[in-house]
Amino acid sequence: MRSYALVEFGKPLQVIDRPDPDPVGTEVLVRVTRSGVCHSDLHIADGYFDLGDGEKLRMEDRGMKLPHTLGHEILGEVIAAGPEASDAPVGQTMLVHPWIGCGVCEACAEDRDNDCMKMQALGIVRDGGYATHVIVPHPRYLVEIGDVDPSIAVSYSCAGVTVYSALKKALPLREGEWLVIMGAGGLGLNAVSIAKALGVERLACVDLDPEKLAAARDLGADLVIEAGQGDPAAALAEGTGANIAAVLDTVGAPATAAMGVKILKKTGRFVIVGLFGGALKLSLPILPQRALTLRGSYVGSCGELKELMALVRAGKVKPIPVTERPLCEASQTLDDLRAGKVLGRVVLTG
Ligand SMILES: [Zn+2]
Ligand SMILES: [Zn+2]
Fold first, then answer.
1. Residue 10's closest CA among 341, 331, 339, 348?
2. Which stretch of DSSP H or E encloses residue 65?
3. pLDDT in tens, 145-180
4. Distance from Cα 110 to the centre of ligand 2, integer Å
5. Residues 315-350: tens digit of each pLDDT
6. Which ligand is nearest to the CA of 160?
7. Is the pTM for the entire model greater than 0.90?
8. Could you tell me the distance, in angstroms and rounded to a whole number, from the CA of residue 57 to the centre of ligand 2?
Protein backbone atom coordinates (compact mmCIF):
# COMPACT_ATOMS: atom_id res chain seq x y z
CA MET A 1 0.00 0.00 0.00
CA ARG A 2 1.02 3.60 -0.52
CA SER A 3 0.28 6.48 1.82
CA TYR A 4 0.93 10.20 1.70
CA ALA A 5 2.13 10.63 5.23
CA LEU A 6 2.97 13.41 7.60
CA VAL A 7 6.58 12.74 8.55
CA GLU A 8 7.35 16.09 10.16
CA PHE A 9 4.83 18.68 11.41
CA GLY A 10 4.62 21.73 9.17
CA LYS A 11 6.34 19.99 6.22
CA PRO A 12 4.93 18.57 2.95
CA LEU A 13 3.54 15.03 3.03
CA GLN A 14 5.84 12.21 1.91
CA VAL A 15 5.17 8.98 0.04
CA ILE A 16 5.53 5.84 2.14
CA ASP A 17 5.18 2.40 0.53
CA ARG A 18 4.73 -0.71 2.64
CA PRO A 19 3.06 -4.14 2.38
CA ASP A 20 -0.76 -4.20 2.43
CA PRO A 21 -1.97 -4.78 6.01
CA ASP A 22 -3.79 -7.97 7.01
CA PRO A 23 -6.95 -7.33 9.03
CA VAL A 24 -6.98 -9.16 12.39
CA GLY A 25 -9.81 -9.78 14.88
CA THR A 26 -12.79 -7.57 14.02
CA GLU A 27 -10.82 -5.36 11.60
CA VAL A 28 -11.71 -4.80 7.97
CA LEU A 29 -9.42 -3.65 5.17
CA VAL A 30 -10.78 -0.97 2.86
CA ARG A 31 -9.27 -0.08 -0.51
CA VAL A 32 -9.69 3.70 -0.48
CA THR A 33 -11.31 5.16 -3.59
CA ARG A 34 -12.29 8.58 -2.17
CA SER A 35 -10.64 10.66 0.53
CA GLY A 36 -11.96 14.11 1.42
CA VAL A 37 -9.56 16.90 2.37
CA CYS A 38 -10.83 18.68 5.46
CA HIS A 39 -9.77 22.02 6.91
CA SER A 40 -8.84 20.41 10.21
CA ASP A 41 -6.17 18.40 8.36
CA LEU A 42 -4.27 21.70 8.11
CA HIS A 43 -4.14 22.04 11.89
CA ILE A 44 -3.12 18.42 12.28
CA ALA A 45 -0.38 18.84 9.65
CA ASP A 46 0.84 21.95 11.49
CA GLY A 47 0.91 19.85 14.67
CA TYR A 48 -1.36 21.98 16.86
CA PHE A 49 -4.64 23.79 17.36
CA ASP A 50 -4.48 27.43 18.46
CA LEU A 51 -6.23 27.71 21.85
CA GLY A 52 -5.84 31.49 21.99
CA ASP A 53 -3.64 33.72 24.16
CA GLY A 54 -0.54 31.93 22.84
CA GLU A 55 -1.63 28.48 24.07
CA LYS A 56 -1.54 25.48 21.77
CA LEU A 57 -3.12 22.03 21.83
CA ARG A 58 -0.36 19.82 20.43
CA MET A 59 -1.19 16.74 18.36
CA GLU A 60 1.67 14.86 20.06
CA ASP A 61 -0.12 15.36 23.38
CA ARG A 62 -3.30 13.89 21.84
CA GLY A 63 -1.46 10.64 21.12
CA MET A 64 -0.45 11.19 17.49
CA LYS A 65 2.80 9.53 16.44
CA LEU A 66 4.72 10.29 13.24
CA PRO A 67 4.79 9.21 10.51
CA HIS A 68 1.03 9.56 10.38
CA THR A 69 -1.43 9.24 7.49
CA LEU A 70 -3.98 12.06 7.52
CA GLY A 71 -7.47 11.89 6.08
CA HIS A 72 -10.64 11.15 8.06
CA GLU A 73 -13.20 11.37 5.24
CA ILE A 74 -12.82 7.90 3.81
CA LEU A 75 -14.83 5.82 1.37
CA GLY A 76 -13.86 2.67 -0.45
CA GLU A 77 -14.34 -0.98 -1.21
CA VAL A 78 -14.17 -3.49 1.63
CA ILE A 79 -11.64 -6.04 0.36
CA ALA A 80 -10.83 -8.20 3.39
CA ALA A 81 -12.06 -8.89 6.93
CA GLY A 82 -10.53 -10.38 10.05
CA PRO A 83 -11.78 -13.73 11.45
CA GLU A 84 -14.14 -11.98 13.90
CA ALA A 85 -15.68 -9.75 11.20
CA SER A 86 -17.35 -12.45 9.13
CA ASP A 87 -20.42 -10.25 8.55
CA ALA A 88 -18.31 -7.51 6.91
CA PRO A 89 -19.69 -6.45 3.50
CA VAL A 90 -16.69 -7.62 1.48
CA GLY A 91 -16.91 -6.37 -2.10
CA GLN A 92 -19.16 -3.42 -1.27
CA THR A 93 -18.28 0.27 -1.44
CA MET A 94 -18.94 1.80 1.98
CA LEU A 95 -18.51 5.13 3.74
CA VAL A 96 -16.30 4.87 6.84
CA HIS A 97 -17.34 6.48 10.12
CA PRO A 98 -13.92 7.66 11.34
CA TRP A 99 -14.93 8.97 14.79
CA ILE A 100 -14.08 5.85 16.74
CA GLY A 101 -13.91 5.82 20.53
CA CYS A 102 -12.05 3.69 23.09
CA GLY A 103 -14.89 1.16 23.18
CA VAL A 104 -15.07 0.85 26.97
CA CYS A 105 -16.18 4.21 28.42
CA GLU A 106 -19.69 5.46 29.22
CA ALA A 107 -19.91 7.52 25.99
CA CYS A 108 -18.82 4.58 23.83
CA ALA A 109 -21.33 2.28 25.59
CA GLU A 110 -24.05 4.72 24.50
CA ASP A 111 -22.73 4.76 20.90
CA ARG A 112 -21.54 8.32 21.38
CA ASP A 113 -17.97 7.56 20.31
CA ASN A 114 -17.59 11.25 19.40
CA ASP A 115 -17.95 12.19 23.09
CA CYS A 116 -15.27 9.67 24.16
CA MET A 117 -12.27 11.21 25.95
CA LYS A 118 -9.84 8.72 24.36
CA MET A 119 -10.89 8.77 20.72
CA GLN A 120 -8.98 6.61 18.26
CA ALA A 121 -10.22 8.50 15.21
CA LEU A 122 -8.99 7.44 11.79
CA GLY A 123 -6.68 10.07 10.28
CA ILE A 124 -6.17 11.69 13.69
CA VAL A 125 -4.87 9.01 16.05
CA ARG A 126 -4.96 5.95 13.76
CA ASP A 127 -3.78 6.08 10.15
CA GLY A 128 -6.33 7.58 7.78
CA GLY A 129 -7.38 7.86 4.18
CA TYR A 130 -4.63 9.71 2.31
CA ALA A 131 -3.61 6.24 1.23
CA THR A 132 -4.55 3.36 -1.03
CA HIS A 133 -5.70 1.24 1.94
CA VAL A 134 -6.96 1.76 5.46
CA ILE A 135 -7.76 -0.56 8.38
CA VAL A 136 -11.14 0.02 10.07
CA PRO A 137 -11.38 -1.58 13.55
CA HIS A 138 -14.91 -2.98 13.21
CA PRO A 139 -17.52 -3.36 10.44
CA ARG A 140 -20.05 -1.42 12.57
CA TYR A 141 -18.24 1.75 11.43
CA LEU A 142 -19.16 1.12 7.78
CA VAL A 143 -22.15 3.04 6.42
CA GLU A 144 -24.08 2.27 3.22
CA ILE A 145 -24.22 4.98 0.56
CA GLY A 146 -26.86 3.47 -1.75
CA ASP A 147 -26.62 5.07 -5.18
CA VAL A 148 -25.15 8.36 -3.92
CA ASP A 149 -22.07 9.55 -5.89
CA PRO A 150 -19.05 8.44 -3.81
CA SER A 151 -17.35 11.84 -4.22
CA ILE A 152 -20.45 13.50 -2.75
CA ALA A 153 -20.96 10.90 -0.03
CA VAL A 154 -17.44 10.99 1.38
CA SER A 155 -17.53 14.40 3.07
CA TYR A 156 -20.70 13.56 4.98
CA SER A 157 -18.52 11.51 7.34
CA CYS A 158 -16.88 14.68 8.70
CA ALA A 159 -18.25 17.98 7.43
CA GLY A 160 -21.74 16.53 7.03
CA VAL A 161 -22.12 14.67 10.32
CA THR A 162 -20.43 17.51 12.21
CA VAL A 163 -23.03 20.04 11.15
CA TYR A 164 -25.86 17.50 11.35
CA SER A 165 -25.05 16.78 15.00
CA ALA A 166 -24.61 20.52 15.72
CA LEU A 167 -27.88 21.42 14.00
CA LYS A 168 -29.71 18.91 16.20
CA LYS A 169 -28.35 20.87 19.19
CA ALA A 170 -29.23 24.28 17.67
CA LEU A 171 -32.76 23.41 16.52
CA PRO A 172 -35.73 23.50 16.63
CA LEU A 173 -36.83 26.99 15.69
CA ARG A 174 -40.23 28.56 16.30
CA GLU A 175 -42.13 29.93 13.35
CA GLY A 176 -40.47 33.12 12.10
CA GLU A 177 -37.19 32.50 13.91
CA TRP A 178 -33.89 32.51 12.04
CA LEU A 179 -30.84 30.27 12.01
CA VAL A 180 -27.54 31.98 11.14
CA ILE A 181 -24.61 29.96 9.81
CA MET A 182 -21.23 31.60 10.22
CA GLY A 183 -18.93 30.60 7.35
CA ALA A 184 -19.56 29.13 3.89
CA GLY A 185 -16.64 26.69 3.63
CA GLY A 186 -17.05 22.91 3.52
CA LEU A 187 -18.79 22.88 6.91
CA GLY A 188 -20.88 25.99 6.33
CA LEU A 189 -22.17 24.94 2.92
CA ASN A 190 -23.06 21.49 4.25
CA ALA A 191 -24.82 23.21 7.15
CA VAL A 192 -26.94 25.30 4.77
CA SER A 193 -27.87 22.26 2.73
CA ILE A 194 -28.61 19.95 5.68
CA ALA A 195 -30.53 22.64 7.60
CA LYS A 196 -32.76 23.06 4.56
CA ALA A 197 -33.22 19.28 4.38
CA LEU A 198 -34.27 19.39 8.06
CA GLY A 199 -36.94 21.95 7.21
CA VAL A 200 -35.36 25.22 8.41
CA GLU A 201 -37.34 27.97 6.68
CA ARG A 202 -35.30 31.06 7.58
CA LEU A 203 -31.59 30.69 7.17
CA ALA A 204 -28.86 33.32 6.83
CA CYS A 205 -25.21 32.68 5.99
CA VAL A 206 -22.25 34.98 6.70
CA ASP A 207 -18.84 34.81 5.01
CA LEU A 208 -16.11 37.13 3.72
CA ASP A 209 -16.11 35.64 0.22
CA PRO A 210 -18.95 36.59 -2.21
CA GLU A 211 -18.28 33.49 -4.34
CA LYS A 212 -18.80 31.18 -1.35
CA LEU A 213 -21.95 33.13 -0.43
CA ALA A 214 -23.27 32.61 -3.95
CA ALA A 215 -22.81 28.86 -3.40
CA ALA A 216 -24.68 29.17 -0.08
CA ARG A 217 -27.50 30.96 -1.89
CA ASP A 218 -27.64 28.14 -4.47
CA LEU A 219 -27.98 25.60 -1.65
CA GLY A 220 -30.96 27.45 -0.20
CA ALA A 221 -29.72 30.26 2.09
CA ASP A 222 -32.50 32.85 2.31
CA LEU A 223 -30.17 35.70 3.24
CA VAL A 224 -26.42 36.05 2.67
CA ILE A 225 -24.28 38.68 4.38
CA GLU A 226 -20.77 39.68 3.32
CA ALA A 227 -18.82 39.96 6.55
CA GLY A 228 -16.28 42.42 5.14
CA GLN A 229 -18.89 44.97 4.05
CA GLY A 230 -20.22 47.69 6.36
CA ASP A 231 -21.74 46.45 9.64
CA PRO A 232 -22.67 42.76 9.13
CA ALA A 233 -24.33 42.43 12.57
CA ALA A 234 -26.62 45.37 11.76
CA ALA A 235 -27.37 43.92 8.33
CA LEU A 236 -28.30 40.59 9.95
CA ALA A 237 -30.54 42.30 12.50
CA GLU A 238 -32.30 44.17 9.72
CA GLY A 239 -32.61 41.15 7.41
CA THR A 240 -33.97 38.85 10.12
CA GLY A 241 -36.09 41.33 12.08
CA ALA A 242 -33.67 40.70 15.00
CA ASN A 243 -35.24 37.26 15.43
CA ILE A 244 -32.16 35.02 15.45
CA ALA A 245 -32.74 32.05 17.76
CA ALA A 246 -29.73 29.94 16.80
CA VAL A 247 -26.24 30.49 15.44
CA LEU A 248 -24.01 27.72 14.14
CA ASP A 249 -20.41 28.89 13.99
CA THR A 250 -18.57 26.73 11.46
CA VAL A 251 -15.48 28.96 11.53
CA GLY A 252 -14.68 29.26 15.23
CA ALA A 253 -12.59 32.43 15.03
CA PRO A 254 -12.75 35.22 17.62
CA ALA A 255 -14.60 37.51 15.17
CA THR A 256 -17.24 34.95 14.13
CA ALA A 257 -17.90 33.81 17.71
CA ALA A 258 -18.17 37.38 18.99
CA MET A 259 -20.63 38.27 16.24
CA GLY A 260 -22.57 35.04 16.74
CA VAL A 261 -23.12 35.71 20.44
CA LYS A 262 -23.95 39.36 19.81
CA ILE A 263 -26.69 38.79 17.22
CA LEU A 264 -28.71 36.20 19.17
CA LYS A 265 -32.11 37.06 20.59
CA LYS A 266 -32.85 36.42 24.26
CA THR A 267 -32.74 32.63 25.02
CA GLY A 268 -30.76 32.10 21.80
CA ARG A 269 -28.41 29.15 21.25
CA PHE A 270 -24.84 29.48 20.00
CA VAL A 271 -23.31 26.20 18.82
CA ILE A 272 -19.68 26.11 17.71
CA VAL A 273 -18.02 23.43 15.60
CA GLY A 274 -15.32 25.44 13.76
CA LEU A 275 -11.74 24.93 14.90
CA PHE A 276 -10.07 28.00 13.39
CA GLY A 277 -8.72 28.90 16.82
CA GLY A 278 -8.33 31.78 19.21
CA ALA A 279 -10.22 32.92 22.28
CA LEU A 280 -13.54 34.64 22.95
CA LYS A 281 -13.77 37.60 25.30
CA LEU A 282 -17.21 37.36 26.84
CA SER A 283 -19.01 39.79 29.07
CA LEU A 284 -20.47 37.52 31.79
CA PRO A 285 -23.68 39.39 32.72
CA ILE A 286 -25.02 38.92 29.19
CA LEU A 287 -25.26 35.15 29.73
CA PRO A 288 -27.92 35.38 32.47
CA GLN A 289 -29.45 38.63 31.27
CA ARG A 290 -30.03 37.27 27.77
CA ALA A 291 -30.41 33.65 28.98
CA LEU A 292 -28.05 32.43 26.29
CA THR A 293 -26.84 28.89 25.68
CA LEU A 294 -23.26 28.46 24.43
CA ARG A 295 -22.16 24.98 23.53
CA GLY A 296 -19.65 23.07 21.46
CA SER A 297 -20.26 20.02 19.34
CA TYR A 298 -17.56 17.65 18.12
CA VAL A 299 -18.13 15.68 14.88
CA GLY A 300 -21.01 13.21 15.32
CA SER A 301 -21.90 9.64 16.22
CA CYS A 302 -22.11 6.72 13.81
CA GLY A 303 -25.88 6.66 14.42
CA GLU A 304 -26.08 10.31 13.36
CA LEU A 305 -24.05 9.57 10.22
CA LYS A 306 -26.55 6.81 9.38
CA GLU A 307 -29.48 9.21 9.96
CA LEU A 308 -27.80 11.80 7.73
CA MET A 309 -27.07 9.28 4.98
CA ALA A 310 -30.74 8.26 5.04
CA LEU A 311 -31.64 11.92 4.31
CA VAL A 312 -28.97 12.06 1.58
CA ARG A 313 -30.11 8.79 0.01
CA ALA A 314 -33.68 10.10 -0.03
CA GLY A 315 -32.41 12.99 -2.20
CA LYS A 316 -33.19 15.64 0.43
CA VAL A 317 -29.68 17.12 0.78
CA LYS A 318 -28.34 19.23 -2.08
CA PRO A 319 -24.66 18.37 -2.64
CA ILE A 320 -21.99 21.00 -2.06
CA PRO A 321 -19.48 21.73 -4.87
CA VAL A 322 -16.83 19.00 -5.08
CA THR A 323 -13.60 18.89 -7.07
CA GLU A 324 -11.83 15.58 -7.66
CA ARG A 325 -8.04 15.35 -7.70
CA PRO A 326 -5.73 12.33 -7.79
CA LEU A 327 -4.46 11.06 -4.43
CA CYS A 328 -0.89 12.08 -5.30
CA GLU A 329 -1.97 15.75 -5.04
CA ALA A 330 -2.76 15.45 -1.32
CA SER A 331 0.04 17.75 -0.18
CA GLN A 332 -0.66 20.40 -2.85
CA THR A 333 -4.34 20.31 -1.90
CA LEU A 334 -3.52 21.12 1.73
CA ASP A 335 -1.52 24.14 0.49
CA ASP A 336 -4.44 25.31 -1.70
CA LEU A 337 -6.87 24.91 1.19
CA ARG A 338 -4.57 26.95 3.42
CA ALA A 339 -4.46 29.66 0.77
CA GLY A 340 -8.30 29.79 0.69
CA LYS A 341 -8.35 28.61 -2.94
CA VAL A 342 -10.87 25.79 -2.46
CA LEU A 343 -14.62 26.14 -3.00
CA GLY A 344 -16.57 23.37 -1.28
CA ARG A 345 -14.57 20.16 -0.98
CA VAL A 346 -11.59 18.59 -2.71
CA VAL A 347 -11.89 14.81 -2.85
CA LEU A 348 -8.81 12.73 -3.60
CA THR A 349 -9.50 9.76 -5.84
CA GLY A 350 -7.66 6.46 -5.95
ZN1 LIG B 1 -12.82 16.96 9.11
ZN1 LIG C 1 -14.71 5.73 24.89
1. 331
2. none
3. 999 999 999 999 999 999 999 999 999 999 999 999
4. 9
5. 999 998 899 999 999 999 999 999 988 877 899 999
6. 1
7. yes
8. 20
